[in-house]
Predict the 3D structure of the following.
Amino acid sequence: MKFSEKGPADTKENDLAKKKLDWSCSLIVASLVGAFGSSFLYGYNLSVVNAPTLYIKAFYNETWQRKHGHPVDSDTLTLLWSVTVSIFAIGGLVGTLMVKPIGKFLGRKYTLLVNNGFAISAALLMACSLQAGAFEMLIVGRFIMGVDGGIALSALPMYLSEISPKEIRGSLGQVTAIFICIGVFTGQLLGLPELLGKESTWPYLFGVIAVPALVQLVSLPFLPESPRYLLFEKHDQAGAEKAFQTFLGKEDVSREVEEALAEVRVQRHLRPVSVLELLRTPFVRWQVITVVVTMASYQLCGLNAIWFYTTSIFRKAGIPPEKIPYITLSTGGIEILAAIFSGLVIERLGRRPLLIGGFGLMTLFFGILTVTLTLQDHAPWIPYLSIVCILAIIASFCSGPGGIPFVLTGEFFQQSQRPAAFIIAGNVNWLSNFAVGLLFPFIQKSLDTYCFLVFAAVCFTGAVYLYFVLPETKNRTYVEISQAFAKRNKAYPPEDKIDSSVSDDKTNGTPEQDSSSTLDNYVRNEVV
């Protein structure tokens, strides 16, 4: 009799074949189409208002003079512009609160499809505002676009998390961050004077928003709904199996369906929890705290402050003013490359090293940047060192902190808790975004170049917290991640308690009770 032994080469070939199987065509198309119509637009709207700032303010002044018979005073103009920029974050907060009720009835896929209606209506309002002579249309359009962003940054990570195998869940989740970076870069590129950044064409910068939304609107209907949503919410096992087959690119999905059914049996008496109930649940307490810390650090780490100083630093380095917009494109390019790098290595290195390393490097380079900005007039080469620090901060952010918080939110929580968890994460994200926009001018005015020490402290605090609290979630199921947090929470999920009691019964010789009936007794009137 011959025994076949697999050598290291065979094992490596099998691993490569498995990875290729994981990345099916439908999975790739779903992630690209979903991100192009969602997170791409969020990134695009972060940068698109920068190039036409002077033209939009002139439009506000002309409209005000036509309506009131006199030019707008500088304080009112500043207020109008501040509202135009910051109302995007307020819309995002509203959108985040809308995700749960919309997602419950429509599902992940159709929530993304309906969301395109917000994007298209916002694009039409903003693109037509100059022609109509109404700056209010631009402000309302920015608010609606914020609603679109709030829904997209919750529904898209949920969708990608639920359709991907756990072996590539991190890489697929990073698609959200990659397309945010591509959106920022596209906004910078189209804002160049040679393209749409002119006085006569700036409204088209906002009209472009409709293109990704339309692409998603005509493409996404041909892809399945999240199989986990179909199984958990709609109890459609046949539809879930078909969705698994499409996304995984194979006929035999019995293992994946059985894993999902096991989770269904655990949760079949549990309804979706509210935000308040999730906050009160003891066995996810540290998961919630970790999501809040990572999301707050994501927005408060000071990347927005970098854009404030970029132009002045480039000017100090001797770059001609007319060339600065083109040099600024390099920052967008660095963002994309760093985000792609993160997506390629996240399943090898894991979440912890990328997050902790990213925040740690940002702390270091913020400290160096503070020194170089303080001493930039002492030597001609110091401004160039400041430019290197800026690019290093951007690369450090996008290689980990820029996308992994969205991945963690999808991994920490079970199906019934996930919508509420994304509402919490979204609220922290948008409130922190609004706080930075509101407070940074005052921080910068008070501390000048030393303002970066504040952001260095935020990054350092985030890195230290994650080092001591965050477990590695790579290739782990929800149950395994819950067990990693259980000691810190000092509480176990119901299924873990049941499993342990069953094993104790076996040890003591007590007849084994059906786990599902045990669970029924435990959770008949409980909410997780």
The radius of gyration is 25 Å.
